[in-house]
Design a protein that fits this description.
heterodimer; A: 399 residues; alpha+beta; Cytochrome p450; five-stranded mixed sheet; 8% strand; globular; B: 68 residues; Alpha-Beta Plaits; two-stranded antiparallel ribbon; 4 strands; 21% strand; Fe-S_cluster_ET (chain B); transport (chain B); electron transport (chain B); electron transfer activity (chain B)
């Protein structure tokens, strides 16, 4: 070839094992610091698979997270034109991003989220009561993992339980890349209908919760409050739920690691970090676009070109981790990028850690004989969602 | 050895308070870094290097003494 030594690739998506990243990442990571990638429709761009380059890119001032320049690395009918809605700070850059984010970061500190443990324990045990009643034999996703994080966030924002199920379905539709445009529009309209009912009511009568605090702060318009509320809901609902389910599935299929954890509960914190690294449920990674022509990793990235950081590949970089493909809950070398890096690093990460810790602990404590209810190869995965996890997780246990 | 923490650069991700809660805390107001001990024992060097490496915005800096 006279052109580039390696032709542009598509984002690898085919997995040979549900717990490992798509196989196609390994040769790419070995070959180059940054890979030419062809986005759906043939748009040229880039792919980062190495840990060091990922950290550099996600903190690089020449790259933007603004919605208007991002294109999906995989085919989907769901595309968002134009800038993010006011208050929807995840897809903005500083200073807009930090203006909004800083108004809520106080609720998500290490200390504050640990103080939420009693509330989280109550919700976890209520859901486990339901699990107990439903079985032996139940879908863990439906009865437990999907409900816990959404109930926690609803309590934190003050969303009534009666609204939660439909919000859950809207978030799911918008996170499913195979959703059709009419499906997505119906979900958007369901979501905005809820926000248009809920936010003004609370503006008249602010409660003692995150939304009440934002309202009393007096810095945000109704539109911005709606955008912030939507961001908190979408950020919390299916992320931790998938991680909870995926972690249980993984531990059940790695019985030596589960036994190690059950023998030494002190390992729980490290186990959660290792599962975040090993599984990296943000399987489509984090995308940024170049605000100007920029030299990066030995290449010229042209203004407007999109770079996708393949977080699952980055978290298995052998340059960074010893035995990266081995699940080791005793691993002490964390510093994974499962929750991103840079100013957009997951806002709710410590809340997620608390939910995961409490959730795994209570589940395996109350159901010590928990096991899969079907052969592992019958478990279908959410490959076509923004966040990866099992579609359902049939489990059973001894009565 | 001396630590500095830039609250303007901090994005309140809380890696420092997670890794070394005896040296770092987060403000209740906006979660930004609160330095509890700017001159810790040199025995903490490894953990401090990890804090610096994992801080997602480079808000925390470590000045190591020459030869340390």
């Amino acid at each position: 070839m006279v052109d580039a030594p390696h032709p542009p690739v598509s984002l690898p998506t085919k997995r040979s094992c549900p717990f490992d990243p798509p196989d196609g990442y390994t040769p790419l990571r070995e070959q180059e610091r940054i890979t030419h990638m062809s986005y759906p429709g043939g748009t040229p761009g880039w792919l980062v698979t190495r840990h060091a380059e990922a950290k550099e890119l996600l903190t690089h001032k020449s790259f933007s997270a603004r919605q208007e320049g991002i294109i999906s690395p995989v085919p989907t009918e769901l595309a968002y034109d134009g800038p993010a809605d006011p208050g929807a700070f995840a897809k903005t850059d500083d200073p807009v991003h930090s203006k909004y984010r800083k108004l809520v970061t106080g609720f998500f500190t290490v200390r504050r989220t640990r103080q939420l443990a009693p509330m989280i324990e109550r919700i976890v045990h209520e859901q486990l009561d339901d699990l107990e009643k439903a079985g032996p034999g139940a879908d863990l996703v439906e009865v437990f993992t999907e409900s816990v994080p959404s109930r926690v966030m609803c309590e934190m924002i003050g969303v009534p339980e009666s609204e939660r199920r439909s919000l859950q379905r809207h978030v799911e539709t918008l996170g499913r890349l195979s959703s059709t445009v009419p499906e997505a529009l119906a979900a958007v309209s369901g979501m905005s209908g809820f926000l248009a009912r809920f936010v003004p009511t609370r503006m008249d009568d602010p409660r003692d919760d995150i939304l009440g605090d934002l309202i009393r702060g007096g810095q945000l318009t109704e539109q911005e409050l709606m955008g912030m509320t939507a961001t908190l809901i979408t950020g919390a609902f299916d992320t931790t739920g998938n991680m909870l389910a995926m972690g249980v599935y993984t531990l059940l299929e790695h019985p030596d690691q589960l036994a190690k954890l059950q023998a030494d509960p002190e390992l729980m914190g490290a186990a959660v970090e290792e599962l975040l690294r090993f599984l990296t449920i943000s399987h489509l990674g984090a995308s940024r676009w170049a605000l100007e022509d920029v030299e990066f990793a030995g290449q010229t990235i042209k203004k407007g070109e999109v770079v996708t950081v393949a977080l699952p590949a980055v978290n298995r970089d052998p340059e960074r981790y010893e035995n990266p493909d081995q699940l080791d809950i005793g691993r002490t070398d964390h510093g994974h990028l499962g929750l991103g890096h840079g100013v957009h690093q997951c806002l709710g990460q410590h809340l997620a850690r608390t939910i995961l810790r409490v959730g795994y602990e209570a589940l395996f404590d109350r159901f010590p004989t928990l096991r899969l209810g079907v052969p592992s190869d019958e478990i279908r995965m959410r490959d076509d969602f923004v966040h990866y996890g099992p579609r359902s997780l049939p489990v059973t246990w001894d009565d | 050895m001396r630590i500095t923490a830039d609250r303007e650069v901090c994005c309140a991700a809380g890696q420092c308070a997670l890794i070394a809660p005896d040296l770092f805390d987060q403000s209740d107001e906006d979660g930004s870094v609160v330095l509890l001990d700017a001159q810790p024992d040199t025995g903490r060097l490894d953990v401090l290097r990890e804090v610096v490496s994992r801080c997602p915005t480079g808000a925390i800096r470590l000045e190591e003494e020459p030869g340390a």
